[in-house]
Amino acid sequence: MANMEILRPRLSGATMLPLSSPLLASWTASVEHRRLVRIAAVLFCATLIAATAQVSIPLSWTPVPLTLQPTIVLLSATVLGARLGSACLGVYLVAGMAGLPVFAWSPGLAPGIGRLLGPTGGYLLAYPVAAYLVGRLAERGMDRRYLTAVGAMLVGLGVIYLGGAAWLAVLGAPAGQSGTAAALGVYPFIVADVVKLALAAPLLPSLRRFTVGR
C-alpha cells in the first residue's frame, strides 16, 4: 500500500495538465484565435455578398437583375466550407429580412422579408443550400485543382438556378413580361455566370490562405 501511495501522485501528475500550464494557455488562445478568424471570415464574406448585390443591372425582359452575387456566394462557400459557408448565407439572409440594405437594389422589388416572396426569392433561399453543397465538395478536395473547383461551383450554380426557376414558375411571369421560368431566370445569365466562375477560380488558393486556412 505504501508503494501505491508513493506512485499515485506521480501518475496523477503525469496524466493531468495543471490549469495554469503554459501549454494549456497556449492551446486555449489558439482555439480562440481560430474561432475569431472564422467569425471574421463569415462576416467578411457576408458583407462582400451584400456589397456586390448593390451593383446590379436590370434587364427589361426579366424581373431578375444581373449581379455578381452568385459568383461571390459560390466563391465564399468554396473558401469557408460547408458549415461556415451556409452560416455566412444565413447571416446575409437574416440581415436582409431584418430590413438592412443587403439585397440587390431594385425600384420594383420589395425590401426586407418581402423580397423573399418576390421573383428573386427562390435564388436567395437557394443560396445557403448551394453554399453548403459547394463547401462540402471543397472539403473533399475539389477546390484544390482549377477544373474541379470550377466544377464544384457549377454544381452550386445549378442549385441556385433550380431554386430561382422553381419559384418563378410558381409566381408566373410578371405583368408585361412573358416566357418560361427558365427563359426568365436561367438562360439570360448562364454565359455570364460561367465566365465569372472561370475567372474567379484562380483566386481560391490565396483566399484560403488569408481566411480560414483550410
What does this structure look like?
This protein is an all-alpha fold and 214 residues long. The chain has a single domain (22-210), classed as Arp2/3 complex 21 kDa subunit ARPC3. The chain contains nine helices and two strands; from the N terminus they run H-H-E-E-H-H-H-H-H-H-H. A hairpin with an 8-residue loop joins strand 1 and strand 2. Helix 3 crosses helix 4, helix 3 crosses helix 6 (146-171) and helix 3 runs parallel beside helix 8. It starts with a helix and ends with a helix. 36% of the residues are buried.
Broad structural category: mainly alpha
The average pLDDT is 84
The outline comes out as globular
Reading the helices and strands in chain order gives HHEEHHHHHHH
Name the helicity range. Answer: 55-70%
Strand fraction band? under 5%
For the record, the CATH architecture stands as Orthogonal Bundle
Largest sheet: 2 strands, antiparallel
Gyration radius, rounded: 23 Å
CATH fold assignment: Arp2/3 complex 21 kDa subunit ARPC3
- The figure for the number of domains is 1
CATH class category: Mainly Alpha
Low-pLDDT residue spans: 4-15
